[in-house]
Amino acid sequence: MKKFKQLIVLSILSFAFISFTGIIQDEWVVPEKYVNMKNPTDPEVDLKIGKSLYAKHCQSCHGKEGYGDGKKANEVEGDLGDFSSEEFQAQTDGELFYKTSFGRDDMPEYTKKMPDDEDRWLIVNYMRTLAE
Known about the structure:
Blueprint: H1 2-24, H2 32-35, H3 47-57, H4 59-62, H5 86-89, H6 93-102, H7 117-128
């Protein structure tokens, strides 16, 4: 009976720990395949297209300058990020491509809305111009 009580206590503590770390841990883990992925587009070419795609698909939440202050930002739970920050800009192009493509939580997946990978890469190129 003593071992059963210990097992119950251990189970409850494990569940509490997992639940708590899920709340405080907000790291967006990107698969290694994407972290090291090279951007196949030239950041100097088609920047206007990237800006246009950003305005159409991203600006309503992330804002014109990428500060996370778009008109729909208040409807979104969680941190929208600041694309001008050093922390954001330190991510690889592949990480940004992954996040833009697959989303999570309130960030939608864009592989269906923008099925052409190149369009999402062009948005990554445009987001690079939002650095301070």
